[in-house]
Amino acid sequence: MSEIMVIGIAGGSGSGKTTITRKIMQNFGSDVSVIYHDNYYREHHSMSYEERSRLNYDHPDSFETGLLIEQLKKLKKGETVQCPVYDYTTRDRSSKTVTIKPAKVIVVEGILIFENKELCELMDIKIFVDADADVRILRRVVRDVRDRGRSLESVVNQYLSTVKPMHEQFVEPSKRKADVIIPEGGHNLVALEMVLQRVRAHLAK
C-alpha cells in the first residue's frame, strides 16, 4: 500500500463535519476509511441511564482517545482494527465493534480531535468546519430529537450546561491547530472541491 494520508475533520457539534466526511466517502469509496471519535466515548455500564444522562460528554476526558490513537497507528501500518461502537440511545458503549480496514485515506472526525497533541501529530491535513452557534444548536436539536430519541428540553439543557461552555473552552481554541478552516461546512462548495482535489492528488501518486 502506498503512503496513507490521514485527514482530521473537527468543528463544533452540528457544524457540518459529517457532510464533509460523507462527500469524501462518496467521491473515493473504498479508498477511504473513517474513524468517528464519538465511538470512543468511555463505557459506563455500571451507571443507570439517568446517571449517564448527567455526564459531561463534551469534555476531552469523556473519550478514550488513547485507544483511538493506538488504533489509528495500527491502520497507518496497514493493520485492520476493531473499533468500539457508541449507542446514542442508551448513552453508553455497545457490545458491538465495527471492523475498520486500512485505506489510502483515513478520515478522523470529531469535535475534540485537535485538542489532543499526539492525535494531531498523526494527521497530514487538519480541517476545522466552522458554523455560527445558532446554526449549530438548531441542527443539533433536529438531529438529537429526530435520530437519537431525545426530548427537546433535554437537548437544550445539555447544550446550555455542557455543550456551549465546553465548545468555548476546548473546541473553539483548537481551531488554531487547523491547516484549513471551512466556513459553512458542506455548503461551501469551493472549499469542499479544494479538499477533494487534495485527496485526488494523493491517490494519483
Key words describing this protein structure:
205 residues, alpha/beta, 5-stranded parallel sheet, two-stranded antiparallel ribbon
What's the Cα radius of gyration? 17 Å
Q: Report the end-to-end length measured between terminal Cα atoms.
A: 11 Å
Strand order of the largest sheet: 2-5-1-6-7
Average of the residue pLDDT scores: 93
User: What structural class results from the helix and strand content?
Assistant: alpha/beta
Number of helices: 7
Residue share in β-strands: 15-25%
Which word captures the global form? globular
* Oligomer designation: single chain
H-E order: EHEHHEEEHEHHEH
Helix content: 40-55%
Largest sheet: 5 strands, parallel
Poorly predicted ranges? none
Report the strand count.
7
Task: Compose a concise summary of this entry.
The strands form 2 sheets. Strands 2-5-1-6-7 form a 5-stranded parallel sheet, sandwiched between helices. With 205 residues, the protein is an alpha/beta fold. Helix 1 crosses helix 7 and helix 5 packs across helix 6.
